Amino acid sequence: MTTTTPKGRTELLRPDGSPVRVLVVDDEPSITELLSMALRYEGWQIRTAADGRGAVQAAREFRPDTVVLDMMLPDMDGLSVLGRLRRELPDVPVLFLTAKDAVEDRIAGLTAGGDDYVTKPFSLEEVVARLRGLIRRSGAADRRPDSVLVVGDLTLDEDSHEVTRGGESIHLTATEFELLRFLMRNPRRVLSKAQILDRVWSYDFGGKANVVELYISYLRRKIDAGREPMIHTRRGAGYLIKPASS
Question: pTM score > 0.85 for this model?
């Protein structure tokens, strides 16, 4: 079920109309605070825990629709916590947070029953998008009709993370996806480098604004290569996306 707030923001709700419930498990207060803020903005109900035992107890009482779980906790690792959570809630989807990006760590988490993962540092929008997808696929909420963004012949599915132009599939990295989504949410609007840095890289970026130029060039190679350009530069102002030939 979905509804729209007075601000025009679409909320994802459980089938009975109550807020989606998310359990956030991480021992770093700054991360749980940031995630809680972002997820509450979605209209969701949040419970947090700082260790594995607290996570299991919270899951038993809170009955979350999905769990954000750090792989490294002070009392036990994320895989051990996952095993205990599965005994309480066999079908709850779990999104791992991990500072490790080695292939074997990803495989271990997914093989143990995790549903998805993001590596630290991460974009808050990426976490929210991954959770939306997990919640809908689990049946905890209905699919939102406006989850697909369309600009000209370019489409972006916020749930499945699929991107196509003219029906041809385009593979993007997580950061490229977030950048393209921000552009497509604001078609024909010039977005400054400062706006893009704040929205796409958020709190975890400490570098210079030329990273925006770099990722715009990456997107152009994938979106515009061999086609009429959709991504445009407004010198001294920023970047925008608009349908070709318009």
Answer: no
